[in-house]
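Example for tutorial group B:
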């Protein structure tokens, strides 16, 4: 009897082992199939994106064929600027190289067409059907003027996308150029641009004192308690990291090490490994790039001990030395920057709601409890989640980043910097032209709706006298040295 039981048990074990092997093999095969399916799904998504791009190109070609011949050169020139991102002076050369059959315009004509399109788009923004968000920021000085720009996006922008905002998602509803900006000037500009702020729910901005005061004055005058102010996530992270690291002796050693090694890298065969540039202002906005560079370089330099003579590690140690003394702050910078970068990736791509709040808080809580970054970011998350709740929008994500306006400034300055004497002039109208989607019909309509006189009047009222205009009049003898006085009547508006 016992032998039969033992035999039965042994047979049962053998069958169980065989079934276990079969189950593991099936799971392995299923894992391979799931991996292949995931790869195929990624390929499908990629192909759908490519098909969408091709359809857009075909639609653009069909739309261009339907454009009257007298407007075709205008549409092509404006689209070369907006989509190919080439300079105004290069556009006529491109047309000449292409053996354009029609008249090749001058670069000044292209500038006028683009500016009139920008003025048309800014003055004819369609009203949104639901609540919306304003993004307000000022660009840094260019020559002696600054530009204030206000962008608009729908509050539910993240419901239809799962990536960060692009220039196609926003509309420029106003811009103003001024020599000096303060709270009162910002308030007056917002009065003209926003008006009473109908359906406006959120204003996103950084913590600049002028913007803070101007926005608060506008809210007080309109009793707009229903309009909430969101502090830009990127600037908040930068200020938090600054509170943790600035003032510490070791951090100054880190920055000095980077600066001193930069020249050595550029003069060696390892110039492609040169460190990122450290700006005096806003260095904490790009500290994640510095941390990533440090981490990669330390990996190439090897661990403790002497490096082999002539090896890459030996050469790199000659270029950047003294890392042993700053080992601890380096580890902290890398740790903090990686985790804050993860939080920014989540919130910039998906907005802020209960789900992203929990994910972000979990990452932030892994930082040291006494760190300023952990305290400030937790406070920021709680404050802005409360704003999201007070808006009564359920789990619709709240936009919390003004990166899109920084991207807009960067794109515009890439064009303006090509001028020998760069300054804010009528070319600022290229800013609204770069926003949103642009069709051939809009380009044609801008020529019909915005006359050249209206464009000149806008320049006179909003730009005033530029530095180049003052220079030309001065050098041409008007109000020059022979007249006995400085050109005071040419002072900028």
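The residue assignment follows.
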């Amino acid at each position: 009897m016992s032998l039969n039981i033992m035999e039965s048990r042994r047979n049962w074990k053998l069958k169980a082992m065989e079934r276990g092997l079969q189950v593991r093999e099936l799971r392995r095969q299923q894992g391979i199939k799931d991996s292949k399916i995931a790869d195929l799904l990624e390929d499908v998504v990629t192909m759908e994106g490519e098909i969408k791009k091709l359809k857009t190109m075909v639609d653009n070609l069909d739309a261009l064929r339907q454009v009257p011949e007298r407007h075709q050169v205008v549409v092509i020139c404006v689209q070369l600027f907006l989509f190919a991102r080439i300079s105004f002076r290069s556009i006529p050369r491109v047309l000449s190289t292409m053996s354009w059959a029609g008249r090749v315009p001058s670069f000044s004509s292209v500038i006028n067409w683009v500016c009139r399109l920008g003025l048309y788009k800014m003055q004819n923004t369609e009203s949104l059907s639901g609540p919306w968000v304003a993004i307000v920021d000022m660009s840094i000085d260019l020559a002696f003027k600054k530009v204030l720009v206000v962008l608009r996006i729908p509050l539910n922008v993240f419901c239809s996308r799962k990536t960060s905002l692009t220039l196609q998602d926003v509309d420029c509803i106003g811009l103003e150029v001024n020599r000096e900006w303060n709270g009162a000037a910002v308030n007056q500009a917002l009065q003209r641009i926003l008006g009473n702020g109908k359906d406006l729910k959120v204003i996103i901005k950084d913590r600049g004192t002028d913007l803070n005061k101007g926005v608060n004055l506008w809210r007080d005058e309109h009793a707009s308690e229903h309009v909430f102010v969101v502090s830009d996530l990127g600037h908040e992270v930068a200020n938090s990291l600054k509170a943790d690291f600035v003032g510490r002796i070791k951090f100054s050693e880190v920055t000095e090490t980077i600066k001193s090694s930069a020249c050595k890298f550029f003069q060696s065969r390892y110039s492609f490994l040169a460190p990122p540039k450290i700006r005096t202002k806003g260095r904490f906005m790009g500290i994640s790039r510095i941390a990533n560079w440090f981490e990669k370089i330390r990996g190439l330099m090897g661990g403790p001990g002497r490096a082999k003579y002539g090896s890459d590690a030996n050469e790199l140690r000659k270029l950047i030395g003294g890392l042993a003394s700053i080992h601890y702050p380096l580890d902290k910078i890398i740790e903090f920057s990686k985790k804050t970068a993860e939080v920014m990736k989540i919130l910039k791509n998906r907005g802020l709601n209960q789900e992203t709040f929990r994910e972000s808080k979990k990452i932030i809580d892994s930082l040291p409890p006494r760190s300023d970054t952990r305290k400030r970011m937790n406070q920021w998350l709680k404050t802005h989640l409360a704003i999201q709740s007070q808006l009564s929008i359920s789990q619709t994500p709240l936009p919390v980043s003004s990166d899109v306006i920084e991207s807009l400034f960067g794109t515009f300055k890439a064009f303006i910097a090509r001028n020998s004497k760069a300054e804010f002039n009528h070319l600022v109208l290229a800013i609204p032209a770069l926003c949103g989607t642009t069709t051939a019909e809009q380009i044609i309509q801008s020529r019909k709706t915005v006359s050249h006189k209206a464009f000149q009047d806008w320049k006179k009222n909003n730009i005033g006298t530029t530095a180049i205009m003052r220079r030309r009049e001065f050098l041409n003898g008007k109000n020059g040295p022979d007249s006995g006085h400085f050109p005071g009547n040419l002072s900028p508006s």
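Residues 234 and 403 are 8 Å apart (CA to CA). Compare this with the pattern of hydrophobic and polar residues in the output above.
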